[in-house]
Design brief:
alpha/beta, Rossmann fold, six-stranded mixed sheet, 5 helices
């Protein structure tokens, strides 16, 4: 499923991939970052294949990928390696950061510019793209 929120023709292009993204969660996320909604175009996908397809469609300013798309999977690392040359900002988001410091190290080695907890994505994007 590909879901886009496009407001600005020349806006900041952000691609977010996560197997658990539902329309309700997208709306909740966007309510938390109102200051970004006028300057960013968000595209949401649910599979690693969709991320790899979408990187061919336009120049992305930021790509956010989940670590696990399947139970026990680590697909996010492979995605980071694939998109290294496609965008200056690559974020790995997961719920394992605090419990597993090796996830951060491996994420950075795979090409992430940062590794964050899922609930901190809005805050990080505000830091990067001018929100308050």
């Amino acid at each position: 499923m590909i879901n886009e929120t496009r407001r600005e023709i020349n806006g900041i292009e952000i691609l977010i991939g996560d197997d658990m993204l539902a329309p309700e969660e997208i709306k909740l996320f966007e309510k938390r970052v109102p200051e970004l909604m006028d300057k960013c175009n968000f595209t949401y996908v649910n599979t690693p294949r969709e991320i790899l397809e979408m990187i061919k469609t336009r120049k992305w300013d930021c790509i956010v990928t989940d670590l696990n798309y399947t139970r026990g999977g680590m697909e996010g690392y492979a995605i980071l390696q694939e998109v290294k040359e496609c965008t200056p900002v690559r974020i790995l988001w997961t719920s394992d950061v605090d419990e597993k410091p090796e996830v951060v190290q491996k994420g950075i080695e795979a090409g992430a510019t940062c590794v964050i907890e899922k609930h901190k994505l809005g805050e990080r994007l505000k830091e990067l793209y001018g929100g308050k």
